[in-house]
Amino acid sequence: MDRQHGSTRRTIIESLKRQDGLTANELAAMLDITSMAVRKHLTQLEAEALIQSTVERRPVGRPVNHFHLTEAAERLFPNTSDRLTVELLTDLRILSGEETVDRLFERRTDRLAEELSAAMAGQTLEDRLETLKTHLDKNGYLAAWERTPEGDYLLKEYHCAVSSVANSFTQPCVSELDLFRRLLPGVSVTREHHMTEGEHLCCYRIRIESAIATAS
């Protein structure tokens, strides 16, 4: 029964992908099931934040709900953009050499550094870490930072949003470390854990330079 329900919900999602804004009655007719059955599935899909509805008010009769896929539902469909990016970078390396790939990532780092530096102007180190965390979260990295008993800071990423590229090219990870160092002046930033090496997170240790001088 669960498998059947899952199949029906998938069919509803695919139907809304092909024709946006269908009503419950239209979906029922397409799936050859009752409107009541369709509404149960729609209620579940709304609870899972996979669909949303808009109301059409008509001159005569009751308002009608039209259903649409959410951004979360779009992620259920195959997306080959990562593969395309890897293929394009591979072709660029073949046609123009490794240095061109390096310059491409350096240009991206320069752009991000400029944007984030403006947002971090006048901020303390911890404020900068919070701003950086917010930026990373918006881009899908599941970031967090914490202060250690020794007075260092750890910046952690539990997901790599560019893993397909990072597993094929070293430049994304090199650029990320460079970006963090540029955004966090007056500290030492070193990478201690790395997802491309099979670890479950990327972790950067941030040490205030005065602490380094004292330790040495």
Short structural description:
The chain is an alpha+beta fold and 216 residues long. It has helices spanning 2-18, 24-31, 35-47, 71-74, 81-96, 98-120, 125-138, 163-166, 171-183, 209-215; strands spanning 51-56, 64-69, 143-147, 153-157, 187-193, 202-208. It has two domains: 2-74, Arc Repressor Mutant, subunit A (Orthogonal Bundle); 81-215, Muramoyl-pentapeptide Carboxypeptidase, domain 2 (2-Layer Sandwich).
Tell me the radius of gyration.
24 Å
Shape: elongated
Give me the number of helical elements. 10
Strand content: 15-25%
Major beta sheet, strand line-up: 3-4-6-5
Quantity of strands, as a count: 6
Largest sheet: 4 strands, antiparallel
Helix content, binned percent: 55-70%
CATH class of the largest domain: Alpha Beta
Name of the CATH architecture of the largest domain: 2-Layer Sandwich
Mean pLDDT: 92
How many structural domains in the coordinates? Answer: 2
Distance between the amino and carboxyl termini: 67 Å
Query: Which parts are unreliable, with pLDDT below 50 for 5 consecutive residues or more?
Result: 211-216
Order of helices and strands: HHHEEHHHHEEHHEEH
Enter the CATH topology name of the largest domain: Muramoyl-pentapeptide Carboxypeptidase, domain 2
Structural class: alpha+beta
